[in-house]
UniProtKB/TrEMBL annotation, chain B:
Residues 610-879 form the GCVT N-terminal domain. The keyword Oxidoreductase applies. Residues 511-594 form the SoxA A3 domain. Residues 902-986 form the Aminomethyltransferase C-terminal domain. Belongs to the GcvT family. Gene3D superfamilies: 2Fe-2S iron-sulphur cluster binding domain, sarcosine oxidase, alpha subunit, N-terminal domain (3.10.20.440), BFD-like [2Fe-2S]-binding domain (1.10.10.1100), FAD/NAD(P)-binding domain (3.50.50.60), Probable tRNA modification gtpase trme, domain 1 (3.30.1360.120). This is Sarcosine oxidase subunit alpha family protein. It comes from Bradyrhizobium diversitatis. Keywords: Oxidoreductase.
């Protein structure tokens, strides 16, 4: 993947933006079955200790997180989960929800750094400022004419914001061309 | 820099320029010099350049008229080669070292322009001359007149080369947007910023301060320049305030959204690496404050376009900001007190003021006294009626209040007819300006939601008013956005007198008196429009071109409208004024495109096997948003057709593989998934056994076919639907609409998994052999265990996988799906496993040929006009209810005369059938009424050895065996073809099974 994602400029030693790809994540969409909202809540709480909240929020515990991406729809992620995550998730929620593996459907980038807000403003048509998009916020939106899901993790200790961005796998080259262009002026490092 | 020696005869002391940084530049090939902080206009004026361009229609010599974006005359071609940019305003171009500019609209030179002969022919070029002069003879229009006009039309020349620079787009959000960085805007930003609101203040200049930098003012004991500097510094230090200089807010749009252009690198010779030339901002503001100031009004008089005639405020700007005296002997022509400031500033700068001509007969004694102290001759109630001078102004003719004509020798005439609020942005959403008798100006009328107008833009012309209104608007806007503003500072400023009487046009003259300089619209043109009945301001604009082109009538429009009011004896409110559309100032198309050009014109979706196909040297084709392999040429193949023929023959005789991941895949789950699909498709899916696949067709609500594909059942509550590549997104929306809006009572969930799975079609007589070898017993694929239309999920190489026994080619076929991350690995494994069986990869072209040979319909037939019956799929319709069933029974959709899909074979087998050819009965005349249908898909059939086609033909199915005439006038074909079944190859379908 690395050579495919690199076009144009060298990594910077004093980067304004740091980019990494979350190859380790397993993820799946989860949609409530009709009338099973309470059941699903309980099963998620029991299995993962997570309170499933409606709306565009990320709730996490341990290595699992649930991101609200639509009415009664979440994207669930598990560190190092792989394709197996959807299987264990289905076992956990049973007939309270439909589970669909998306581990291969998206490529997820983690982006951070002091200049990240300015870089993302070149493509995301939404307000990513602290006051509008605090840690835990999720948005299903677009970036530079391609569909994207973006969420904000907890800030680093020095207050630097951290975002993760999911785009369809087939679009990752186009996304990377946009990302590289947009942060070229700020200096880039890859983790 | 050592060779800088060009003189700057008009440079004087003072100004906000850095004299330690001399800059060299070229205008029309001649070298000049200026300083850091100059504009091209100020540097040209400093160097004594008076003529900077020729007018559009009459090619009259023109000079710099203004010091801002409203400049109508000083339009130049900036830079050279691929970076050449026509029609840039010299008054807004920041000087940089090595700048090169050329004047426009002149030949052979600016000083001696042959086009000036148009002035002698001016009776031909009056308003509406297109419609009058070039009417007769009619035959001359295309051959003579139009080419002539086209050659004369347009200003400046585009470079015609690709722009080497980058452009960028960005989004910004704020509580308060302040448009304009003059005194009012700075005060507003300060009040809102101190309250803690997120503030963006945008100013098109490169130093904030607006008129504080151009005029002599004091605020709280500081000079206006210093106050602006300190205020900007405080704003800069506030983390919640963003100060954007060199940024023009050019448009107001719905939803409190504004368009802005940031000229990131326009002031540099070449943008540094990774820095765009310009950045287009979309700014969403909760509240906005329009503080765009005002534009001075000239006065219309004979010879008012001679170089050396300038707006009075522009003269002050050149004196105070740029340290340039644009003349040696100056005269002022004004009808308001504000103009007098120019006379005083000129005198203070050491320029001789010959005369002050004030059209008013009553002038305040203090002004008269100030005029006396500078020794200027005062002419009250007088008008300038004409000017003289070969290459710029040398003499002014004045009609005194006694009716005498006198001459005054001057090389600079400063003109002030009052001020027009710069209110364009307030009209972008339809707001009409309203006339104020008190201010003698149009003021902003109905405003966009959450926008307030302050200062000169609102007609409040004094500095004190601007600061007070700015502070109030900033504080109120912050409060409205949920912040708490503190005490509002009160500013102590110097007193200003702003009284005046509008003077639209001076006493009549035999010389041309220009209203719109850029379009050469004269007083006489306005009068002609009035005589001919074009009295509405919109008709006036179209008939005379008043207010068109790059300046959009910023100076001219209101004067023209006032003149029309006088000519038609109507009050100004009744005449009204035109409203503006975005952009308020010109914006390059490149800025709107941003980085979306060339390879990045739009996002491209790459299939999982893309890298592998690239390495194999495949030829690609864009199919909707996807880039797919079209064919895989091998060395020695003469052309694409021989490649495709080889691919088809290999699939039909051995085995082939094709990436079909681009087809839409939708996961449908839930207890009611089967019932749901029964309502979506015309045929039944609730009865489909687990482990089976069925072909389905879905209709739109109106009964027309929408999409087709297969749907597989993996569990009682789990189906996977496939759609065509082109309709994948549309079908997903259709399903979401159906389950969320039409039948929320059904327990069904649907989500796209197109991207999750890499899917490969493996087809041909050796397909099972290949799979046996590839899968190594991970699943039993014997015909008994896995017959035609079976499906299964299984584990392969420790990963989930799916297998479907389906076929688009008509051969024994399978589709193998693996998680997309492993698509590249899997296609390579397939190639390896197939090597011993003669495997070929094939692309979309061979896929298309084989589906035509099999008579399968695709996008060309599912074209939004065809019914299930037209497609030959009418018998699939079940008795149950489904979307489109009712409207599919409309008389028009069950008419037996409707076209149906049939096959065509040319009688002369050498003839080539092509898409779009029309069908006629033999002997019928080739005309629309006799049209019987058309070819939808065509291909050379490698199996039949000639061209074949699918066509939509009226009553087609009952005409099999008849002969038709195929007419293709576009490509010159006219031959006979035989109507046949659309299934050309293996009509029994024996090859699929077994």
């Amino acid at each position: 993947m690395a050579d495919r994602l690199n076009h144009g400029f060298a990594a910077s030693s004093n980067p304004g933006v740091i980019v990494s790809i979350r190859n380790d994540l397993g993820y799946a969409t989860i949609m409530v079955r009709r009338g099973a909202d309470e059941q699903l809540k309980q099963r998620v709480k029991t299995a993962y200790g997570i309170d499933l909240v409606p709306g565009p929020r990320r709730s996490a515990s341990g290595d699992v997180a649930f991101l609200g991406i639509g009415p009664t729809t979440w994207l669930a992620t598990q560190d190092d989960g792989g394709n197996g995550f959807s299987v264990s998730l289905k076992q956990a929620v049973g007939d309270a929800a439909s589970v669909t593996d998306q581990t291969d459907g998206y490529v997820i980038h983690r982006v951070s750094g002091p200049r990240i807000g300015q870089a993302l403003a070149k493509g995301f048509p939404i307000d990513l400022h602290n006051r509008a998009f605090a840690p835990g916020a999720v948005a299903v939106t677009a970036v530079s004419h391609l569909g994207a899901i973006i969420w904000r993790l907890d800030d680093l200790e020095d207050g630097t914001p951290v975002f993760e961005i999911a785009v369809f796998r087939s679009l990752v080259d186009s996304f990377r061309r946009w990302l590289d262009d947009s942060l070229a002026g700020f200096g880039l490092a890859r983790n | 820099m050592s060779d800088i020696s060009a003189p700057q005869p008009n440079r004087i002391d003072g100004g906000l320029i850095d004299r330690s940084r001399a800059l060299r530049f070229h205008f029309d090939g001649k070298q000049y010099q200026g300083f850091q902080g100059d504009t091209l206009a100020s540097a040209l004026l400093a160097s004594g350049v008076r003529i900077v361009g020729r007018s559009f229609k009459y090619h009259r010599p023109r000079g710099i008229m203004t010091a801002g974006a409203e400049e109508p005359n000083a339009l130049v071609e900036l830079r050279t080669g691929a970076r050449r940019e026509p029609n840039t305003r010299a008054t807004t171009i920041e000087l940089f070292d090595g700048l090169e500019a050329l004047s426009q609209n002149r030949w052979p030179t600016l000083r001696y322009d042959l086009g000036a002969v148009n002035s002698l022919l001016s009776s031909l070029f009056v308003a509406g001359f297109y419609y009058k002069t070039f009417m007769w003879p009619a035959s001359f229009w295309e051959r003579v007149y139009e080419p002539l006009i086209r050659r004369a039309a347009g200003l400046g020349r585009a470079s015609l080369q690709p722009d080497p620079d980058q452009y960028e787009k960005a989004y910004a959000f704020c509580d308060v947007l302040v448009i304009g960085g003059g005194p009012g805007g700075l005060a507003a930003a300060l009040a809102a910023g101190r309250a803690g609101a997120r503030v963006i203040i945008a100013d098109d200049d490169f130093i904030p301060g607006g008129r504080l930098n151009n005029d002599v003012h004091t605020i709280d004991g500081l000079s206006g320049v210093e106050w602006a500097k300190y205020t900007a510094k405080e704003l800069d230090a506030l983390p919640n305030v963003t100060m954007m200089t060199r940024t023009t807010i050019f448009g107001a749009y719905d939803g409190s959204t504004f368009g802005a252009l940031e000229r990131v690198s326009d002031h540099l010779p070449v943008p540094p690496a990774h820095q765009p030339r310009q950045r287009l901002w979309k700014i969403v503001a909760q509240r906005s404050i329009l503080a765009a100031g005002a534009i001075e009004r000239p006065i219309v008089f004979g010879g008012n376009d001679r170089p050396g005639i300038m707006l009075a405020s522009a003269v002050r700007t050149y004196l105070n900001r740029y340290g340039v005296a644009p003349g040696k002997a100056a005269t002022l022509f004004t009808s308001c007190d504000d103009g007098w400031r120019t006379a005083l500033d000129l005198a203070r700068a050491g320029v001789k003021v010959e005369a002050i001509i004030d059209a008013r007969s009553e002038i305040s004694p203090s002004l008269v006294a100030s005029g006396q102290t500078i020794g200027a001759r005062l002419l009250k109630g007088a008008h300038v009626i004409d000017t003289r001078g070969a290459h710029g102004l040398s003499q002014i003719r004045v009609r005194t209040n006694k009716g005498d004509d006198i001459a005054i020798e001057s090389d600079l005439l400063a003109v002030s007819g009052g001020w027009n609020p710069n209110l364009a942005l307030s009209t972008h959403l339809g707001g009409r300006p309203r006339w104020s008798e008190e201010r003698s100006a149009f003021l902003p009328g109905d405003l966009p939601r959450n926008l307030v107008v302050i200062g000169a833009a609102s007609g409040a012309l004094t500095l004190a008013e601007a600061l007070k209104q700015g502070t109030a608007a900033g504080a109120t806007s912050a409060d409205a956005a949920g912040f708490k503003s503190g005490a509002r500072p009160e500013f102590v400023v110097d007193d200003e007198s702003i009284s005046g009487e509008p003077l639209w046009q001076a006493a009549a003259s035999r010389s041309k008196a220009f209203v719109d300089y850029q379009n050469d619209v004269t007083q006489a043109d306005i009068a002609l429009a009035a005589r001919e009945g074009f009295t509405s301001v919109e008709h006036l604009k179209r008939y005379t071109t008043l207010g068109m082109a790059t300046d959009q009538g910023k100076m001219a429009a209101v004067i023209g409208h006032a003149m029309m009011a006088a000519l038609t004896d109507r009050p100004m409110p009744q005449v009204g004024t035109t409203i503006a559309r975005p952009p308020a100032t010109p914006v390059a198309i490149g800025a709107f495109a941003g980085r979306h050009r060339g390879q990045d014109f739009r996002p491209v979706r790459l299939a999982p096997s893309h890298r592998w196909a690239e390495q194999l040297g495949a030829t690609f084709v864009d199919a909707g948003p996807w880039r797919r392999a079209q064919w895989f040429a091998r060395p020695g193949e003469a052309d694409w057709l021989s490649t495709v023929i080889r691919e088809v023959k290999t699939v039909r005789s051995a085995v082939g593989v094709c990436d079909v991941s681009t087809l839409g895949k939708i996961d449908v789950q839930g207890a009611d998934a089967g019932i749901f699909l029964d309502r979506i498709y015309i045929n039944t899916f609730s009865t489909l056994p687990v482990g089976k696949v069925r072909y389905g067709l879905m209709l739109r609500e109106d009964g027309i076919a929408m999409d087709d594909g297969t749907c597989a059942r993996f569990a009682p509550d789990h189906y996977v639907m496939s759609t065509t590549t082109a309709n994948a997104a549309k079908v997903m929306q259709h399903l979401d609409h159906a389950r969320q809006v039409l039948w929320p009572e059904l327990d069904v969930q649907a989500i796209s998994v197109t991207e999750q799975w890499a899917q490969f079609s493996i087809a041909g007589p050796r397909a099972r052999d290949l799979l046996d070898r590839l899968l190594g017993g991970a699943i039993d694929i014997s015909d008994a265990a896995f017959p035609y239309l079976a499906c299964a999920d299984f584990c392969w190489r420790g990963r989930p996988a799916r297998l479907f026994r389906v076929s688009f080619s008509g051969e024994l076929g399978y589709e193998l799906a693996v998680p997309a991350r492993f698509g590249d690995e899997t296609i390579r494994a397939i190639m390896e496993a197939g090597a011993g069986y003669g495997l070929t990869p094939y692309g979309t072209e061979a896929l298309g040929v084989m589906r035509i040979e099999k008579g399968h319909v695709a996008g060309n037939e599912l074209n939004g006009t065809t019914t299930a019956h037209d497609l030959g799929l009418g018998r699939m319709m079940g008795k149950k209810d489904f979307i489109g069933k009712v409207l599919a029974r409309r008389p028009g959709l069950v008419d037996p005369d409707r076209p149906a899909v049939i096959g065509l074979k040319p009688i002369d087998r050498r003839q080539r059938l092509r898409n779009g050819a029309h069908l006629f009965s033999p002997g019928a005349a080739v005309k629309l009424e006799n049209d019987q249908g058309y070819v939808t898909s065509s291909a050379f059939s490698p199996m039949l050895g000639h061209w074949i086609a699918l066509a939509l033909l009226a009553r087609g199915r009952e005409r099999v065996g008849q002969i038709l005439r195929v007419v293709d006038p576009l490509r010159g074909a006219d031959f006979e073809a035989e109507i046949c079944s659309p299934v050309f190859y293996d009509p029994e379908g024996a090859r699929l099974r077994g």
